[in-house]
UniProtKB/TrEMBL annotation:
<protein>
    <submittedName>
        <fullName>Dynein axonemal heavy chain 10</fullName>
    </submittedName>
</protein>
<dbReference type="Pfam" id="PF08385">
    <property type="entry name" value="DHC_N1"/>
</dbReference>
<dbReference type="GO" id="GO:0007018">
    <property type="term" value="P:microtubule-based movement"/>
</dbReference>
<dbReference type="InterPro" id="IPR026983">
    <property type="entry name" value="DHC"/>
</dbReference>
<feature type="region of interest" description="Disordered">
    <location>
        <begin position="197"/>
        <end position="221"/>
    </location>
</feature>
<dbReference type="GO" id="GO:0045505">
    <property type="term" value="F:dynein intermediate chain binding"/>
</dbReference>
<feature type="domain" description="Dynein heavy chain tail">
    <location>
        <begin position="276"/>
        <end position="846"/>
    </location>
</feature>
<dbReference type="InterPro" id="IPR013594">
    <property type="entry name" value="Dynein_heavy_tail"/>
</dbReference>
<feature type="region of interest" description="Disordered">
    <location>
        <begin position="74"/>
        <end position="97"/>
    </location>
</feature>
<feature type="compositionally biased region" description="Basic and acidic residues">
    <location>
        <begin position="75"/>
        <end position="86"/>
    </location>
</feature>
<dbReference type="GO" id="GO:0030286">
    <property type="term" value="C:dynein complex"/>
</dbReference>
<dbReference type="GO" id="GO:0051959">
    <property type="term" value="F:dynein light intermediate chain binding"/>
</dbReference>
Length: 1188
């Protein structure tokens, strides 16, 4: 069954595959359903829970097999004589049971059926499953495991979130096997990759190496900064030892003591024959147990090829044998033996012989373990040393310890014991070396690191051989012990082979380095053919590909011949590359690009290690270099002749000094090349002497050019510089554009008059002095004051820019108003345009006074502009004011009537206009403040500011115009909208359907709001002419008082009139659309237009039938029903029409017609009813008569 949760389904598939369950197995589904789904809930909680910090969560599945006996019906074939062919059946028949007759019988057999069951646990390992197969998922994420969209996505995502594993058997044995066979090799390899076996950084290339096979190398001491041991690996070995010790204690052999009463005396027990027999059987069992243990321990081999396995073996043997020996020393054992001794039992002597053998082996184990313990530290260093230097340092003291063990040990002084131990040490050394040296990745490391690795690896193996023979020599010299005549192959065959491979790898790395030294940047700069060099280097790179792609392990002794073939091919390819490189060098030196680079390369090759054949060939190329130098001198001459009139300059470099510098660079180019030539003995012996002559001619030509340039500049500077220094500080520049009033006031722009020629002379002087040329005194003096003049220029620029920025920010009105302040600033600046020059002493004072005047002017401007911003803010408030403010309720039932709506707008308008009136009143004082800043008066009617007053009065009018237009246009937009603003009742005023209030009243109410909006400008009183003071009311005639406001200007403006007219027209259209909607109700007009009394009496006079009455009544009832279905409220643009009064009136009219017709129907219906009664009575009497 596929589970709904994709995560659980993925777990099911993993568990089924791990336990090798058939596809149709139902055991996982049974697990999910067990305990009312509790087991399935465990998985869900495991997947959805949030994991705590530093805490892991594990889901475990256990597989068990349950046996069940069932009865199976089996057909039984009977023989011709009536006997069953099954002997069991025959027995059953003979028991007397009745057998039905027939050729075939049925019987029931009991068969055992095995059911596979799964169990689950989270973060616990139940004791009952200790020996069961377990499949586990360990979460490696803290967050809940999200459910993937499908199984394909789950197969990609979920394996990244879990560590999955499986094991079978007792946990301690599983842990031991995984530590020994998985984790320790894995951590060893991982640490070698992570730390590079201690080669994280570059190290110096080993010195004192020789290419000879047989030459020894001195051991390299490890650096104190390196970690001596790999702590993790070391602790894992110790932990493995603890696990083994625990397992060993669990498996200890225990001598069984019989549960007999041994309290009586020995003689009493001896006299009991039955007791003696039982004790003899017990001792016989002991003898068998001890014999089996001794035999088992003697046949036991170390569980691993490393030397630590030897210690583990003797440790286990000593522990087991000493445990047995201690059990034999128990008092109860001694008493049993005494009883049997007095009873003359033969088993006692047999047991004594076995115990003696046990004691001998126990002493041997203890002695061997004690000596091996002295070697354990060295063995641990070999297994867990953080780098190969640790192994190199460990081997000599290890060999000394082995020598001591050989001399004083009673058991490790034979070839049978010592050779296997030393063979294990050799295996450990080979193992560590092959873990560090991986030919597939060695050449991807940095070259120095790789060389150091290979060198140290060979040193380890050479140190092993060297230390062995040193110890052997010492033993022979002492003459007190047996010599070490060990089998050479077992100790050194593999180590020597691996050392030979390491030597080959080191030579490969050395050859690669030599090739890279030969074909480096120096040769590229000389030959100018990087592509060809890259091709050669590519071939060099491909030299190691056969080694990197080798399909066998070169460290295996059996692959020696294959490895030698690879090295032979390598050497052949190296010779071919050398020959090609020599041909390439010959071709390149015929077309040299740079003689200096070529010479530098040749000199460098003298001091670095490179291929000897290529190096010797390069030494014969000095004549080619001289020929190239002559070509370079010719090339420099051509450049000089081509560019001397317009030489290339550096950035910010003056023309004269730049030209001289350029000429000197050409001279230095050929000079710097010739000087090293003259120092090389090979060059002095050369016959190419014309190179020196060409150099001298070119140098003279460049010198004459430089001198001419300098003299010309000096003469011009002495003539022009005094005149330039007499220029005035500032010049006034007027524009050719037609002047405005503002430009007439400012009178042009000021520019700092510091000539660019002076700057150029200063720059030329600075560069020429650096070229060791003498310069005129005045130029030198000006150059020394360069910083001062530049600062003057910057300060003057600041003054002028500050003045112009202030002027540019002024409007024409402000320029006119601030004319006195502008004139004061210009008076200060005038001094720099007429009297002061760059030789003057008062430049600093002029700048200071100018700064003060401009700052004062700028302060006034900023304060005036602040006042203007305040005024603009108030005018903006006026322009953006909302005079037709209203609030639309959330519920349409809460909408006000038209009169209430207009009254609310009127109230809000009065408040708003009052606030705006106060803001308008504040404008005059602000202008008065400006008057005080500029004129020093606060009258509000300064004649110098008349234009300024007019300017702001126009601004006020513009703001009021914007206010009125914006409000009328906004209200006009509302008229065209669909949001209802007020409520209007629709009533029947017979014979018409009208609005309440009527349309014309609504029109005048709304238009009055618009007129009030325009007339609200009467609150803004005009200023008296030539002032910013409000004009008081004026008496006109005897009683009339006139107040001059902006209302007349605003009300007469065409745009305002047009906007008001638009509102009027739109409002009339809306009222017309409402009337058109009400036409729908006019179909009920006959109800109130016709006289129902006359109409009904006329109808009744025709003596109609009841059916005709019914038709009429149904007609009016339908009208009543239609009116009931009509909407009682209708939104028509800004109108919310309340149709309820109209509908109620129409319904009342219909009901009135129904009542009138009913009253007329009553009389004829009553007469008809009485007539019917009479007829029925007559019929009744006739019927009774006939019946009688």
């Amino acid at each position: 069954m596929v589970h709904d949760d994709v995560r659980v389904e993925w777990i099911r598939r993993c568990v089924s595959a791990g336990f090798n369950l058939p596809d149709d197995s139902k055991c996982f589904d049974e697990l999910l359903e067990r305990g009312d789904g509790e087991e399935g809930d465990k998985m869900t909680r495991f997947l959805n829970s949030v994991q705590e910090e530093n805490c892991s969560s594990c889901l475990l599945f256990f597989k068990t097999t349950r046996e069940e006996e069932i009865e199976v019906e089996t057909p039984v074939e009977r023989t011709r004589h009536g006997h069953s062919s099954d002997p069991d059946e025959e027995t059953w028949i003979q028991s007397g049971a009745e057998i039905p007759s027939g050729g075939s019988e049925q019987r029931f057999d009991v068969q055992a059926v095995y059911h596979v069951e799964l169990h689950v646990a989270v973060n616990e390992y139940p004791e009952r499953f200790l020996k069961s197969t377990v499949f586990y998922f360990i979460r490696n994420t803290k967050e809940p495991v999200d459910e993937p969209p499908d199984m394909k996505e789950a197969s990609k995502l979920l394996p990244r979130l879990f560590d999955i594993g499986m094991h079978h058997g007792p946990p301690l044995f599983v842990l031991q096997n995984k530590l020994a066979n998985v984790y320790i090799p894995l951590v060893t390899a991982h640490q070698m990759k992570m730390t590079g076996a201690g080669y994280e950084s570059k190290t110096d290339s080993p010195e004192g190496e020789t290419s000879g096979e047989g030459e020894e190398k001195s051991p390299v001491k490890s650096k104190g900064l390196l970690t001596y041991r790999d702590e993790l690996l070391n602790r894992m070995y110790k932990y493995l030892g603890m696990v083994k010790s625990t397992i060993q204690h669990q498996d200890e052999t225990t001598l069984l003591i019989p549960e007999l009463d041994l309290e009586p005396a020995v003689d009493v027990l001896r006299s009991n024959a039955e007791m003696v027999e039982k004790l003899e059987q017990c001792v016989t069992n002991w003898h068998t147990q001890i014999t089996l243990v001794i035999e088992l321990q003697q046949n036991k081999k170390p569980q691993g090829p490393d030397p630590l396995a030897e210690i583990t073996l003797w440790q286990e043997r000593a522990s087991i044998l000493s445990g047995l020996s201690e059990q034999l020393k128990q008092p109860v054992v001694n008493k049993i033996l005494k009883v049997l001794t007095k009873a003359d039992a033969d088993i006692v002597q047999t047991l004594k012989g076995t115990v003696a053998e046990l004691t001998k082996y126990c002493v041997e184990s203890d002695d061997n373990l004690r000596f091996l313990r002295t070697l354990e530290r060295h063995f641990m260093n070999l297994a867990t040393g953080a780098h190969l230097n640790v192994l190199i340092e460990t081997i000599p003291p290890l060999m000394s310890s082995l020598q001591i063990v050989w001399m004083i040990s009673c058991h490790y002084n034979t070839n049978e014991r010592m050779v296997p131990l030393m063979e294990r040490i050799a295996w450990q050394l080979c193992q560590r070396v092959t873990q560090v040296i991986d030919v597939h990745t060695l050449f991807k490391d940095e070259r120095e690191v790789a060389k150091t690795k290979v060198h140290d690896a060979k040193q380890v193996l050479d140190q092993w051989r060297l230390s062995y023979f040193q110890a052997r020599a010492e033993i022979e010299e002492s003459g007190r012990n047996e010599r070490w005549e060990f089998e050479w192959k077992r100790l050194f065959e593999r180590t020597d082979h691996i050392a030979s491979v390491c030597h080959d790898l080191y030579n490969v790395l050395q050859i690669l380095e030599e090739f890279y030294n030969n074909f480096g940047p120096e040769l590229i700069s000389v030959t100018g053919d990087p592509k060809r060099i890259d091709e050669v280097l590519s071939r060099v790179d491909h030299l190691v590909l056969p080694i990197e792609d080798v399909s066998f392990n070169p460290f295996e002794f059996g692959k020696m011949s294959s490895w030698k073939m690879i090295m032979q091919d390598f050497n052949t390819t190296v010779q071919a590359i050398e020959e090609e490189a020599i041909n390439f060098v010959d071709q390149s030196f015929k077309t040299l690009r740079s003689s200096a680079a070529a010479l530098e390369m040749l000199l460098k090759f003298k001091n670095i290690r490179s291929r000897e054949a290529i190096n010797n060939h390069l030494k014969r190329k000095f004549n080619d270099i001289l020929i190239q130098y002559c070509k370079e001198v010719e090339s420099v001459n051509e450049i000089f002749e081509t560019e001397k009139d317009n030489p290339p300059l550096n950035r910010n470099e003056p023309p004269v000094a730049g030209a001289i510098r350029w000429a000197h660079s050409l001279s230095h180019r050929i000079k710097n090349t010739i000087l090293p030539f003259l120092k090389v003995p090979e060059m002095l012996e050369s016959t190419q002497c014309k190179a020196v002559k060409k150099y001298i001619e070119m140098s003279m030509k460049i010198r004459d050019y430089s001198e001419k340039k300098y003299e010309t500049w000096r003469a011009e500077t002495e003539r022009n510089l005094p005149l330039l220094m007499k220029n005035t500080l500032l010049v006034l520049v007027t524009s050719d554009i037609l002047p405005t009033e503002k430009r007439l006031q400012t009178g042009g722009r000021y520019i700092v008059n510091f000539a660019t020629e002076i700057k150029e002379i200063i720059l030329e002087t600075k560069h020429l002095v650096s070229l060791d040329y003498n310069v005129p005194d005045l130029a030198q003096n000006v150059a020394l004051q360069k910083d001062k003049f530049i600062q003057y220029e910057i300060d003057l620029d600041n003054v002028v820019n500050c003045y112009h920025s202030a002027m540019d920010s002024l409007s024409d009105a402000l320029v006119t108003m601030l004319a006195p302040q502008i004139k004061a600033v210009k008076t200060n600046l005038y001094l720099g345009c007429k009297r002061l020059n760059w030789n003057s002493l008062g430049i600093s004072d002029f700048i200071s006074h100018g700064n003060q005047a401009v700052s004062k002017f700028k302060l006034v401007v900023s304060q005036v502009q602040k006042n203007e911003r305040d005024i603009e803010s108030k005018l903006q408030s006026i322009a953006m004011a909302n005079l037709l403010k209203y609030q639309v309720p959330d519920n349409s039932k809460d909408l006000p009537s038209v009169k209430e709506f207009c009254a609310r707008i009127d109230q809000e308008r009065i408040k708003t206009v009052d606030l705006l009136r106060r803001k308008y009143a504040d404008i005059g004082p602000l202008i008065t403040k400006t008057e005080h800043l500029t004129r020093g008066t606060t009258s509000g009617k300064s004649k110098f500011m008349a234009d300024y007053y007019i300017y702001w009065e126009r601004k006020v009018l513009d703001s009021l115009m914007k206010m009125v237009l914006r409000n009328t246009q906004t209200f006009n937009a509302l008229l065209r909208g669909s949001i209802p603003l007020f409520q209007v009742n629709v009533i029947l005023s017979a014979p018409k359907i009208v609005l309440q209030p009527q349309s014309k009243d609504i029109y005048w109410l709304i238009m009055q709001c618009i007129r009030d909006c325009v007339e609200s400008t009467k609150q803004f009183v005009r200023w008296m002419h030539g002032t910013c003071i409000e004009c008081p009311p004026q008496q006109r005639g005897e009683e009339e008082v006139v107040t001059f406001s902006f209302c007349s200007d605003v009300g007469q403006h065409p745009q305002v009139n047009e906007s008001v007219m638009t509102v009027s027209q739109n409002l009339q259209r809306l009222l017309l659309s409402v009337d058109q909607y009400l036409v729908h109700w006019k179909r009920y007009r006959p109800l109130w237009e016709k006289n129902k009394s006359i109409f009904n009496e006329k109808f009744a006079s025709r003596n109609p039938s009841c059916v005709m009455y019914d038709d009429k009544l149904q007609f009016f009832s339908r009208i009543n029903q239609e009116v009931t279905l009509e909407p009682l409220f209708k939104n028509e643009h800004i109108f919310h029409l309340n149709l309820e009064p109209l509908a109620h009136t129409v319904q009342e009219a219909a009901e009135s017609w129904i009542r009138s017709l009913g009253s007329l129907l009553n009389k004829p219906a009553k007469e008809d009813l009485f007539n019917l009664r009479d007829e029925l009575m007559v019929l009744n009497r006739v019927t009774l008569f006939h019946m009688s």
